Amino acid sequence: MIDYLTASDEELRTFCHSKSEKEIVGGLKYGNLVLKLSQHAVIKYGLGVTYDEAVNQEYAFNHLDPKIVRVPKVYRYFHHESPPWSIGYLVMEYIEGENLEKVSLEDHPQVLKDVTTAIKHVHSVTHATVSNVTENYTGEVTECQAGRSVLDKVIGSVTEQRPGPISGGVPHGYMWSEYGARQRFQTLDEIQDWINYRLGYFDLKVDLKPYELRFCHLDLARRNMILQPDGSICLLDWQSAGFYPRIFEIRCIHLLLTSDPVFFNHLLKELEVEESSDPVTLESLLKLYAIVQGYSFTEPKPISPTFTRPEAPPWLGKFK
Questions:
Q1: CB atoms within 10 A of CB 205
Q2: Among candidates 271, 220, 215, which has minimal Cα distance to 100?
Q3: Mind listing the pLDDT tens digit for each residue in 87-106?
């Protein structure tokens, strides 16, 4: 075990890369791994662990009701450049429980209802609710937050209807290509242009103007959930999250449908009732996945020259 409060970045890196099997508590053998640091903390590391994920997760922790859905508290994030690779390290709260992928839905019928309630709660966060929470926040400043006002600077522009990750970074996940969107977005119109540029090769297009931006997770596989001893649900892996039209969440669930049909069919049944998505738009978004996976688009729109990355939260880099 290692003290994440006092250990240097190099000590944490050494711990990760000299791991033993008993310290691995999650992740993929040849992908991102999660190691237990202590009774209260774990570290997630790998090529796919990014600053954007850390900010998304910190945002979710601060804006979601833990009585409805738990999110691990972020303690620390740093990355190490080892050309051509950049490996991220995310230290967070350890959540006791069983990975939902290993839980029998027949033996735990309440799980489906609780997961649905949790996801709907995530989607209830809009720019309007963000403004309200930011203005009225009176929570205690803890060592992992180390200054809520700094985090508010990160999310400040979210109240201005900006889509995408909370940090303002490049979106990643099932909505985009294997390498992400490869650009940042300032408006929903820019996302619509990105999608229609690709759909246009097949005479397709979508209209996203009717859709409100809501906080979405976009990777709702059961492996990213923990059933806690008290029966509550914890959501993990916020890499793909951000503010998007809720139809994006439904589209991502459709892509995962065959991998866990009972689970995902239940989610779709519940979420599609609320969304009332245009079936033509949904079908076009589903075709987008095949397009971006099968074709290379070498001339994406340039990143807006007016974009300025928000000030980093205090736990980026060395622990304060």
A1: 14
A2: 220
A3: 999 999 999 999 999 999 99
